[in-house]
Specification:
It is a single chain. The strands form 2 sheets. Strands 5-4-1-8-9-10-11-12-13 form a 9-stranded mixed β-sheet, with helices on both faces. Strands 3-2-6-7 form a 4-stranded mixed β-sheet. The chain has 12 helices and 13 strands. About 35% of the residues lie in helices and about 20% in strands. The protein has about 325 residues and is of the alpha/beta class. It starts with 10 loop residues before the first strand and ends in a 12-residue tail after the last helix. The protein binds adenosine-5'-diphosphate and magnesium ion. Magnesium ion (MG) binds next to loops.
């Protein structure tokens, strides 16, 4: 554990965590006989990734007072992710999901309707903690799971903006959770409220109607964020700040499971950013962290620690990223 669990956090993430049941053998869910337990939920993954990269992270959510809520609490405590903004809901049933592996890839089956996290509301938003933090991370999944959770996300972003806390936003568009029109409206509004947007290329195309990465970046920047980091899978990422576009090549690996790559990218990026590292250098670190995550199964287990990532960054990059002065208001 790198930090005491409930020291004031620099990085806050808001959303839903779930327990994962991953079928041990390939085949349809109907045929599965045993499952390995893991953890999921995009924003929880981000908090863990940030903590493993040395960030002081905390999570804002609701879980049940059931066994699965306890398992998640233990995960965050073990990882040094602060839990003082986690509400245990009496009688609540923490969300779970199942993964079946078939020839066409992974299939996900969720049991999360009416979960405690879907009852997140603006009353759960820790305003003072957000004001005291350096960075708030919000995603479209948190906005999609319920209207009250969406309100919580907007309220958290408003508090962050009013108090000079940097907002990072990942659309993480999941068509199964909401209609395309509602998703577009909420995500486009969120781009206006964030400082740094972290979409992948498919989301960028959906939001802008553009095809080329350059046109997508231009369209996204026009919506308001100061910086857009476009995640490009095996091609790495593009970082645009309105003045220039910097290509950050991927770190070469042999991937076995890409789930959680974008979340690890976001958490690793956030951890470096709050140290005062410029966005491009934070992205150079994040592409390595995200690539390493794809080399193991599950979302959380393979998330790398800081030393694993730094040892794979070239020395010149390492030197340039080591002397930054933390500045709450400097995103790039
Ligand atoms: N096959 C891969 N090889 C190396 N890095 C990868 C690979 N797939 C993903 N990544 C890294 O993970 C990041 C996020 O993955 P991506 O698929 O673009 O986003 P998301 O997971 O949000 O859909 C990429 O920007 C890249 O740095
Ligand atoms: Mg994503």
């Amino acid at each position: 554990m790198t930090t005491a669990p409930n020291t004031p956090a620099d990085i806050l993430a808001l959303g839903e965590a779930m327990l994962e049941f991953n079928a041990d053998a390939d085949g349809a869910l109907e045929t599965a006989e045993s499952f390995s337990v893991g953890y999921g939920g995009d924003t929880s993954n981000v908090a863990v990734a940030a903590a493993r990269s040395g960030g002081r992270a905390a999570y804002i959510t609701r879980v049940g007072d059931d066994a699965f809520g306890t398992v998640l609490m233990r995960l965050w405590e073990r990882e040094g992710v602060g839990t003082s903004h986690v509400t245990r809901e009496p009688g609540g049933r923490t969300g779970i999901y199942f993964i079946a592996r078939g020839p066409a890839g992974h299939g996900f089956t969720y049991y999360r309707a009416d979960s405690p996290a879907s009852r997140l509301s603006p009353a759960d938003v820790p305003e003072e903690a957000i004001a005291a933090a350096k960075l708030l991370h919000v995603t479209g999944i948190t906005q999609a799971i319920s209207t009250t959770s969406c309100d919580a996300a907007f309220h958290a972003m408003a508090v962050a903006r009013a108090t000079g806390t940097l907002v990072t936003y990942d659309p993480n568009h999941r068509p199964a959770l909401w209609s395309r029109d509602r998703a577009r409206a909420v995500i486009l509004r969120s781009l206006e409220l964030c400082d740094i947007a972290l979409p992948n290329i498919e989301e960028g195309r959906m939001l802008t109607g553009q095809e080329s990465p350059e046109a997508v970046l231009e369209g996204l920047l026009a919506r308001g964020p100061k910086v857009v980091v476009l995640k490009m899978g095996a091609e790495g990422a593009l970082v645009a700040d309105g003045a220039e576009v910097t290509r950050v090549p991927a770190h070469h690996v042999t991937p076995v499971d890409a789930s959680g790559a974008g979340d690890t990218f976001d958490g690793a990026f956030a951890a470096r950013l709050v140290e005062g590292v410029p966005a491009v250098e934070a992205a150079r670190y994040a592409v390595v962290a995200a690539a390493l995550t794809t080399t193991g199964h599950g979302a959380v287990r393979p998330i790398p620690h800081r030393a694993d990532v730094l040892s794979r960054l070239s020395p010149s990059v390492d030197r340039r990223t080591s002397g930054g002065t933390p500045h709450k208001e400097s995103p790039a």
